[in-house]
Design a protein that fits this description.
The chain has about 220 residues and is of the alpha+beta class. The chain folds into two domains: about 1-120, Aminopeptidase, CATH 3.40.630; about 125-215, no CATH class. It is built from six helices and ten strands, in the order E-E-H-H-E-E-E-H-E-H-E-E-H-E-H-E. It has helices at about 20-30, 45-60, 105-120, 135-140, 180-185, 200-210, and strands at about 5, 10-15, 65-70, 80-85, 90-95, 125-130, 145-155, 160-170, 190, 215. Helix content is about 30%, strand content about 25%. GO terms for molecular function: acyltransferase activity, transferring groups other than amino-acyl groups.
């Protein structure tokens, strides 16, 4: 199944099409919207079309994908996007034009997509956010995702160090399973202690599993 159309109270979630390039340009051109994303803001429609070709057409050619345009029902015009990757990490990602921030739109879209991937048999999803972008983490928590650990990465293509927080939501009832690829990949990986982090010391030990290069902060 590839990006089946979903509807919520206010939204239509569907595939991007070639007719959406102006809308996609409005999403991708804003520096503030794309500040915490692994690409630079686009400068023109040609760059937008290339982005669409590389990141959407390629996904729509696969047997299975979840690569959505977020559209308001009133005009079916894309104002953001929401995706779940089919690679092992099943990374959950999203972006929204800033005119529509603080309206619960990404959370509403996210709940529909989470319900769909669960129905379709995915065992879990993960999501990461820059520690300096806690609002993104708030969306993850509203969708039922739980903080697991943090790690520092020399982020590309922007080439500066970023501390990411990794969240996960399991659908199979196995709450002990944690996707550890990032944990094992990066030397500076750790579990943070912050106000709304529900992890106990025992759960922290389960995450680090005796790995001596990691620590609790």
């Amino acid at each position: 199944m590839n990006t089946p159309v979903l509807e919520t109270e206010r939204l239509i979630l569907r595939k991007f099409t070639e007719e959406d390039m102006e809308a996609l340009f409005l999403i991708l051109k804003d520096e503030e919207v794309n500040k915490f994303l692994p690409w630079y803001a686009v400068k023109n429609l040609e760059e937008t079309k290339q982005f669409y070709k590389e990141r959407y057409i390629s996904k729509y050619a696969q047997p299975r994908a979840y690569a959505y345009a977020i559209c308001l029902k009133e005009d079916n015009f894309p104002i953001g996007y929401i995706n779940v990757a089919m690679e092992e990490h099943h990374d959950f990602g999203y972006g929204l034009r800033k005119e529509f921030w603080h309206k619960g739109i990404v959370t509403e879209a996210g709940k529909a997509v989470v319900d769909q991937v669960k129905k379709d048999g995915l065992l879990y999803i993960t999501a990461t956010h820059d520690r300096n972008n806690p609002r993104s983490g708030n969306v993850m928590k509203k969708l039922g995702m739980k903080y697991c650990y943090s790690y520092e990465e020399q982020w590309q293509p922007k080439n500066f160090p970023v501390i990411f927080r990794m969240y996960q939501l399991n659908f199979d009832g196995n709450d002990d399973f944690v996707y550890k690829k990032y944990w094992n990949m990066y030397h500076n990986s750790f579990v943070e202690k912050f106000e709304d982090n529900p992890l106990t010391k025992g759960q922290v030990n389960d995450v680090i599993d005796g790995d001596p290069h990691n620590h609790f902060l």
